[in-house]
Amino acid sequence: MKPLEVRNLTIQYLTYRGWVDVVSNVDLDIDDKTEILAVAGESGCGKTTLGLAIAGLLPSNARITSGYIKIYGKNTESSRVAVIFQDALTSLNPILTIGEQIAEIYVHHFSMTRSEALEEARRKLSEVGLPDSYVNKYPHELSGGERQRALIAMAIALKPELIVADEPTTALDVTTQAKVLKMLRSIVKNQSIPMVYITHDLALVAHVADRVAIMYAGQVVEYRDKYSLFNKPLHPYTRALLDSLPRVDVEVRELRAIKGEPPLPGVFAKGCRFNPRCPQVFDKCLVEEPGLRAVDNGLVRCHLYA
Amino acid sequence: MHSDILVKAESLRKHYEVRSKLLKKIVGYVKAVDGVDLDVRKGEALGLVGESGSGKSTLGLLLAKLIEPTSGRYFFKGMDVTWSSPRILRGKIRVVFQDPYSALNPRLKIKDSLIEPLTTLKYNDREALEKASEYLKLVGLSREHLEVYPHMLSGGQRQRVIIARALITEPEFIVLDEPTSMLDVSTQAQILELLKNIKEEKEITYLFITHNLAVARYISDTIAIMFAGQIMEIGDKNTIFTKPLHPYTRNLLSAYPSPDPLKPWQPELPEDTGNTGKRNEQGCKYANRCMFRRDVCFRSTPELIEVEKDHRVRCHLYSA
Amino acid sequence: MIDSTSRTLREVLMVKRVRYGVIILLSFLALSLIVVFFSPFQYDQISYNVHYPPLSPSSVNWPYIMGTDNLGRDVFTRTFYAYILDTGCGLAIVSLSGLIGLIIGLISGYLGGLVDLVLMRIMDIVISIPGFMLAIAIAAVLGSSIVNAVISVVIVTVPIYARLVRGMVLSVKESLFVLAAKEAGLSTVRIIVKHVLPQVTPIFITQLTMELSNAIIYIAALSFIGLGAQEPVPEWGLMISTARRYVREAWWPAVLPGLIMFLTVLSFNLIGDGLRDYLDPRKKLSVRETS
User: Fold this and answer.
1) Chain-centre distance of CA B157, in angstroms?
2) Does B94 touch chain C (CB under 8 A)?
3) DSSP string, B37-71
4) Which of A93, A297, B94, C68 is the most exposed place for a label (fewest CB within 10 A)?
C-alpha cells in the first residue's frame, strides 16, 4: 500500500461568487515511507487546501467534488495524519504547558497514564533538541524556533502515518529556519514517516524534499524528482519561477520577472490556466487545457510536451 | 563631509524605556538601535540586512524621521536635521511600507491616498491629480486605478500604489521597509525590478531594509549587516558576498539554501547553550552566539574598523 | 459616494430584523403625522362633558380610537403626540451625548498622555454612579422639566460613547495607514478626521441606534417618577404614571401608551441589532487566504 495516493482530486470552496474550484484534478503519490514530497507554489495555487484535505481538516465551506485521497489504502478519517502549521502560537494551547500538550496525545490516543505520558513527552522533547525543563514551560515562554520544534514533537508523538507540514518555518529567522528544517528532515527520515511539505520557497524545496509537485491555479503543472526538476525544469512556469529568484550564491544581473499575477481561485483563463503569463504560449494553449503527461520520469501539464 | 553623501547618521541610538506595570518605574531599556554610524551616498542603494530584533526597522524609522533618536545626530544633505520637524524635508525623504494590505486606508480611493502626500506642498487639485496619473503610469498601473478602492487590487498592485505614493513628492531618499516580504515570489521579482529601474531613472537614494540576503544582493550597491542594534559589517556588495568577514555575516550566508540541490546546504548551526538566544550586553553583542568568541569579546565592544577599502567590520578578530 | 450609500442601505434593509424595525418605525411615524395634522382633538383637550368613567376603546366610542383618560382626553392623540416627543427627545439625547462622547473619545484616544488620563478619569467617575440614580440627582438639582431631563440623561450617557470611541481609536491609531498618513505629512487634526474617524463611525452609529431605545426609556422613566415632563405634556412615562392610579377602573390609558412605547423601543432595537450584525460577519470567506 502506498503511504499517499491522490487521484483526480477536485476541491471547491463556497465564496460569495458561489462554489469555485480551488484544487483541480490533482494526482499525487508518495511511494515510500521515507519520502518527502514537496508541494510548491504561490498563494492561491491550492497547496494549502490540498494539505488540509490530506489531513482531513477541510472546513465546512469546502467540498471534494471528484477524486479521492488514500493513506495506506484508507480514507483520511481513518488515518493518523499529523499537521504542522506555520504559526505555532495559534496552534498551541496557551494555558497548558508544552509537556501537558504532548502528554495529552499519549493519554488520549495510546491510553497511557499521566506519568507515563509525561515521560514520553520528555523523550520527544529531547528528540527535537529541547531540554527536559521545557516540559513545564508555557508556549509564550519559548522562542519562535523552540515553539516550532515543540509542534514537531507533538506531531511525531502521534506516531503518524503521514505528516503534512504547511510552511512550517516561514515565520522564523533564516538561521532558526535552517536549524528547524534540518532537524525535521532528519527526524522524518530516521523514523520513516512520509511527509508532505508545503511551501512557496523553492530554495528550501531543493534541499528538504525528494520529489516535487509544482502547483499553479489549482493544478499540478510539474511533478518530478527534485534533481530532474532543478536540473532541467520542463514547465514554463517552473522555469520562469526559478529564473525570477534573487540569489545569495550568485550575482543576478537581471531578475526576469513573470508578467501578470497568479489568478484568483475560480477565475481561470480558458485553455491552459497559465497562458496569460506564459512566455512560450501558442494557439493551442488558448483553447485546450493540457493534461498531465508522463515525461522524463515525471509528469508535466503543458502542450509543449504533447 | 564629502559632497556626495546624502544621508549621514552619527552614533544614533534609540532606547525604549521598559516600565514596571504597577508603579511605572523604569526597570530597563530596550536598546533597539545602539550606536549606528552610517553614510549613504547619493544614488546609492544601501541594503540593511538583519533578522527580527536587529533594530533595522527602528533604524529605518529614525532615518525616515518618523521617530526621534535618544541620542546621536542625523544629517541630510549636510544639514543637521536630528531635531527638526519632518515638515522641513517637504517630501524629500519618503517611506515605502511593508504591508500592502494595511498601508492603504481601505475607505479611501486610490487617488485620494496617492495625493495625500501632496497636501503639505502647494499643488492645486488638478495638478495633484495629474501627478497622481503620471506616477501611477510610472509604476505600471493605469488611470483607471485612480477611482478604485484598495480591496479591488492585488497585493502587487497595492504595493505599486504605495511606491507611487512615495515617489509623488519627488523624494531624494526613500526608506523601504521590507517592501516585498508579503508578496508572492513572482510578484516580488516584478516589484524589485521596478524599484531598481526607478532608482536608476530618477537617481534616488535607497535605504532598503530586508531580512532576505538574496533580495539585498540583487538591489543593493552597499550592504550593512545589523545585529542587536549595531552594524556588524558594512561594505560594497560584492566584497561582502565574496569575502564576508564578520562571523555573523558568514553564519547568515551559510543559512541560505540555494535553489539548486547540487549545491550543498551546510548552515553553521550554533550549539544550544542556554545563552544563544540572548544578546550579550557587556562587550560584543554577538559573543553569546559566536563560534570564535574569546574573553576579550565579553570585556570590550569592538569598534567598526575599516579593514580594506569600502569594507568595515566590528569584530575583535580584526581589531589591531 | 451617493451610490455606495444607497447600496449599503439596500443591503442593510435585506436583514429581516431591520425590515421589521423599519416597518414599525415608518407606520408609527405615519400615524403620528396623521394625528398631528388631522386629529379632531388637541392633546390637552379636556372634554367639557367630562367623560366619567373614561370611555373605553371600542367602536361605540369612535372617534376615540383608544378611548379617553380620566380628564376626557383622547388617548390615541396623546399617545402619538408622545411618540414625537419621546422619540424626539431620544434623538436629541443620542445626538448630543454621541457628539460630545465622540469628540472626547477621539481626542482622548489619539492624544493619549495627560489629556487621556484626565478625561477618562472624569468619564470613570460619571460611569461609576448608577445611571438612573445620577439622572435623578441631576434632574432634581436642575428642576423638573423635560429639557432638564434630557440634559441629565445626556450627562449620564456621554461616557458610553467616549469609552467606545476611545477604544476604537486606540486600535486604529496603530494601523499602518495612519503611520503612512503621518509619513505623508498630514497634521494631527487631518489624520483624526480623515483616517481615524471613518474607521470609528460604523460601530459608533450602530451604538447610537441601540442607545436610542435606552434614551427613550430614560426619559419615560424620569417623567414617570415626576422629574421630567409635567402635565399637560403628552409623554408616555407621565401618562402611565397618572393613569396608574385608576387602572382598575380603566386599563387603557395606562396600558396602551405602554404598548406603543414598547413597540417603538423594540423597533429601534431591531434596527440597531440588525445593523450590528450587518457590519460584523461581512468579512468572511476570503478564498485567497485559504488556498
Assistant:
1) 22
2) yes
3) EEEEETT-EEEEE--TTSSHHHHHHHHTTSS--SE
4) A297
What backbone torsions phi and psi does residue A56 show, to the nearest 5 degrees?
75, 30
Predicted TM-score (pTM) of the model is: 0.86
- What confidence category does residue A167 fall into, taking pLDDT thresholds of 50, 70 and 90? very high
Would you say domain C2-290 falls under CATH 3.40.50.300?
no
- The answer to whether residues C222 and C136 touch, using CB atoms and an 8 Å cutoff, is yes
pLDDT tens digits, one per residue of C256-275: 999 999 999 999 998 888 88
Distance CA A70, CA C101 (A): 60
Instruction: Name residue, grid cell 440597531.
Output: C272
Contact C166, C109 (CB under 8 A): yes
Subunits touching A (CB < 8 Å, at least 3 pairs)? B, C
The interface predicted TM-score (ipTM) is 0.88
pLDDT at residue number C48: 57
Print the domain residue range for B224: 5-92+169-247
In a mutational test of the C interface, the residue from B93, B94, B102 whose CB has the highest number of chain C CBs within 10 Å is B102
Between B271 and A64, residue with greater pLDDT = A64
Give the model confidence (pLDDT) of B36-58 as tens digits.
999 999 999 999 999 988 999 99
* Domain identity same for A217 and A116: no
Predicted local confidence at residue C13, as pLDDT: 77
The CA distance from B16 to B36, in Å, is 16
The pLDDT tens digits for C110-136 are 998 899 999 999 999 999 988 888 888
pLDDT per residue as tens digits for the range B63-87: 999 999 999 999 999 899 999 888 8
Tell me if B205 sits within 8 A of B40, measured CB to CB: yes
Q: Is residue B295 one of the residues assigned to a domain?
A: no
Contacts of residue A32, defined as CB under 8 A and 6 or more positions apart, other chains included, come to A3, A194
Nearest CA in chain C to A217: C291
B276 has a pLDDT exceeding 70: no
d(CA C216, CA C94): 10
Of B213, B262, B272, the CB nearest to A248: B213
Mean pLDDT, residues C132-141 taken together: 86
* pLDDT category of residue C100 using cuts at 50, 70 and 90: very high
Q: Where are the beta strands (DSSP E) in chain B?
A: 5-19, 26-41, 45-49, 71-76, 79-80, 93-96, 173-177, 205-210, 222-227, 230-236, 305-308, 311-313
Please state the rounded mean pLDDT for residues A183-212. 94
CATH of the domain at B80: 3.40.50.300
Q: Quick check: is A85 in a domain?
A: no
**Residue-wise pLDDT tens digits, A74-119:** 999 889 999 998 877 788 888 999 999 999 889 988 888 988 899 8
User: Best-predicted range by mean pLDDT among A108-112, C40-44, C211-215?
Assistant: C211-215
Boundary (domain end) residue, out of A119, A137, A159: A159
User: Residue B293, SS3?
Assistant: coil
Q: How many domains does chain A have?
A: 2
Identify the domain containing residue A280 by its residue range. 4-80+160-305
Residues A170 and A292 occupy one common structural domain: yes
- CB contact burial C238-249 (16+ within 10 A = b; e otherwise): bbbbbbeeeeee
- Say yes or no to pLDDT of A282 above 50: yes
Determine the Cα angle at A58 with ends A54 and A62, to 5°. 125
Burial (CB < 10 A; 0-12, 13-18, 19+), residue B207, is buried
* A261 lies in the same domain as A204: yes
Question: Between β-strands B205-210 and B26-41, what pairing exists: parallel, antiparallel or unpaired?
Answer: unpaired
Same domain as A39, residue A114: no
- When scoring B94, B116, B147, B176 by the number of chain C Cβ atoms within 10 A, the one with the most, hence best to mutate, is B116
Whole-number Å distance between alpha carbons of C85 and C236? 9
β-bridge partners, B174: B94, B206
